[in-house]
Design brief:
Helix content: 25-40%
Shape: globular
Strand content: 35-45%
CATH superfamily: Gcn5-related N-acetyltransferase (GNAT)
Number of domains: 1
Mean pLDDT: 94
Radius of gyration: 15 Å
CATH class: Alpha Beta
Strand order of the largest sheet: 1-2-3-4-5-7-6
Structural class: alpha+beta
Low-confidence stretches: none
Order of helices and strands: EHEEEHEHEE
Largest sheet: 7 strands, mixed
CATH topology: Aminopeptidase
Length: 153
């Protein structure tokens, strides 16, 4: 399995990459999770997009939002792995790629995410801790989480 990774700004995405990214997000967030919501929220245009491919097939994606778009901090969202590629550590690779990019692009800054609550342990493994704020987003339990090099120091 040959895994390739890229991070691109919205302007750098090809039409095929944008199509495949949105198709994957809809397949998981709308169809699999049975959650109709407005995926295209205008934030993709100001985000960076992590794209992970296996043999030129998009298998995972996430968007990295600069400070001031979703939160005061940098944020990572729309984290998704194709169902056929789960259990192969691709989600962990995706988060590593995102966090390395954040460090290079923005420095050692705090990162805020809105995690689906069943994935809290997954994000804990990447240094995120719950802020204690839990809520329903599109009828799915979510937990606000923060990554900071200053937490627990």
């Amino acid at each position: 399995m040959e895994l390739t990774t890229n991070i691109k700004s919205f302007e750098q995405l090809t039409l095929d990459e944008f199509h495949d990214m949105i198709a994957l997000r809809i397949a998981i967030f709308v169809i699999e999770q049975n959650c109709p919501y407005q995926d295209l929220d205008g934030k993709d245009k100001t985000s960076f997009h992590a794209l992970l491919h296996v043999n030129q097939q998009l298998v995972a994606t996430a968007r990295i939002l600069p400070p001031g778009i979703s939160y005061n901090e940098v944020s990572i969202g729309r984290v998704v792995v194709d169902t056929a590629f789960r259990g192969k550590s691709i989600g962990h690779e995706l988060m590593n790629v995102c966090m390395n990019f954040v460090s290079k692009q923005f420095g050692e800054v705090p990162v805020r995410i809105s995690a689906q609550s069943h994935l809290v342990k997954f994000y804990n493994e990447h240094g995120f801790v719950s802020t204690g704020k839990e809520y329903l987003e599109d009828n799915i339990p979510h937990t606000e989480m923060m990554y900071s090099t200053h937490i627990n120091q």
